[in-house]
Amino acid sequence: MRLSGYVVVISLVTGLLPTASVLAETDAQFAAIAHLGDLNGVALHCRFLDQTERMKAGLVEILPKKRQLGEYFDVHTNMAFMDFIGKHASCPDRGDFSRRVGEALQVLRVEFSAE
Hints:
It is globular, with a radius of gyration of 14 Å. Helices cover 83% and strands 0% of the residues.
């Protein structure tokens, strides 16, 4: 069952990569979305629900209204969540994590402000 979950995630990622990279005008924009998704996966596992809400609100505010960009964020969220579990990682300090989310949102804002 676990393997099939990874196959689905890998299929989604490979299917979304060309679409997402066409929609994100630069590699930096693409990377900013991916990084925020990675943080969201950790936040979900650690039950930092205030941070997941903060990230999603930031996406709605900052990103162009293109479904594929949100889907790409979700794929990275799922991959990071599964990776965190697989590594048996410990949850980060809540304050430090909040700071990292703020920095990631600022990068996203800067990268998409040129549009």
